[in-house]
Amino acid sequence: MGGLLHLIGVAIRSAIPAVLGFLLATLASVPTGIEHLGSVMPALALIAVYYWTVQRPDLMAPAAAFLIGLWKDILLGGPLGLMAVLLLLARTFVVNQRQFVAGQAFLVGWMGFILLSAGVA
Amino acid sequence: MRRPTRSRLKSTVNPMETLAQRVSFVTFLIIGLALFVFSKFNPQTTVQVQSFLTDAATPVLQAVGQPVEAGREGVGRLGDIIDSVNEMERLREQNERLQEWRLVALRLSEENERLRGILRVKDETDYPFVTARVISDPGGPFLRAVLVTAGRRDGVERRQPVMDERGLVGHTINVGAAAARVLLITDLNSRVPIVMEETGVRAVMEGDNSARPRIAFLPVEARIKEGERVLTSGDGGLFPPFVLIGRVVRTENGPPRIQPSADLARLGYVRIFDYSPPAPPSAEIAEEAPAEGPDAGEDAAPNGEQQ
């Protein structure tokens, strides 16, 4: 019984990065009514993918990054697959560069994100 | 963090896992590129798929948007309160001025009606419409489009003009059962035939994803006035004639642009008009130029002026 509960707990915790990614992707599209927010709105989905890839790449699988991107494509109505491929590439890039950011200071992590978002944009 | 850093690092050096991730990376990359290429070369199918997906996205956006909607009112209120004294002063003055204008307008409208009656002018400005709520921001880096809560079941079709209470917003590009996507006039793909109110110059308004669309195809000898109002010309038949779009504004360096009247940065409710251009005088011409056929291909990258 305890084992089962433990498993369920692990499953829920493992799903958090992906779920958060979806949530942030959606949140970025919700109309806030705040003027010009659109132009300064950070790429929330990219933040989620970046952060979780650095912290726990095993929980931000390529599939998760891809699906978050696809969902973003659906919300934005742009060409299907564009954001999906971008986030997937971003994830792979971060995984390969991960040794430079993982376990480093907060600031270094942000520097990495700046580089990454410049690349994506 | 629950786990110590070392075990986290270790978990990623597991060769089997990296291999699995490599494989899944390549798989998804191929799927994504295939999707992308497919949507580029099959715009017709893509429009249908997107219409379907639009419906899928709507309930999620509405659910997530609910709390934001509540907060939105709060933010608006806060701004109002801070500025209320100035605002009240301004409104009082404006009210006095408007009272005078009201009398003028009443007299003019009466006269206008009488003259129209004498001349038997056909009223061209009254189109049926549905009102819909906007449920997404035009957030993406590549597209200026929003989702609205009206679709086929409300009589909305593709290529219908959309306005808010102040001016032209855009036109519908894909329509699901209960939701539709509206391409804003600021989008890179938006082209609207325009006419200047005072100088009568005709041109095309060309979106470039910035807040102020460009003026294209302006005749060389044309002189346009700063601040004059810009209306749709009705050429091309997508938009009805004489709908307010905005004003001509001067830019720091470069040609004048158009400042849209519609509050595109924070759309609340919009009206979708059921407008179809007056039929050409001869049936033959109408048959020779099918409305949807040849230009349907361009509609994934929607285009304001088709004809």
Question: Can you give a write-up of this model?
Answer:
The complex is a heterodimer of chains A (121) and B (307). With 121 residues, chain A is mainly α. Chain A has seven helices and no strands. In chain A, helix 3 (44-55) packs across helix 7 (106-120). The model of chain A has no long low-confidence stretch (mean pLDDT 76). Helices cover 38% and strands 19% of the residues of chain B. Chain B contains five helices and twelve strands. The longest helix of chain B is centred in the N-terminal third of the chain and has 40 residues, at 43-82. Classes of the chains: A mainly alpha (121), B alpha+beta (307). At the A-B interface, helix 1, helix 4 and helix 5 of A face helix 1, helix 2, helix 3 and strand 2 of B.
Could you give the topology of this structure?
The complex is a heterodimer of chains A (121) and B (307).
Chain A lengths: L1 H26 L9 H4 L3 H12 L6 H15 L5 H15 L1 H4 L4 H15 L1
Chain B lengths: L4 H9 L1 H27 L1 H40 L1 H36 L9 E5 L11 E4 L12 E3 L4 E8 L4 E5 L6 E6 L5 E5 L7 E3 L12 E4 L11 E6 L7 E4 L8 E5 L9 H6 L19
Antiparallel strand pairs in B: 1-12, 2-5, 3-4, 3-12, 4-5, 6-7, 6-9, 7-8, 9-10, 10-11
Q: What is the helix tally of chain A?
A: 7
User: What is the makeup of the main sheet of chain A?
Assistant: none
Strand content of chain A: under 5%
Radius of gyration of chain B: 25 Å
Largest sheet of chain B: 6 strands, antiparallel
Succession of helices and strands of chain A: HHHHHHH
Strand content of chain B: 15-25%
Output the keywords.
heterodimer; A: 121 residues; mainly alpha; 7 helices; globular; B: 307 residues; alpha+beta; six-stranded antiparallel sheet; 12 strands; 38% helix; 19% strand; disordered N terminus; disordered C terminus
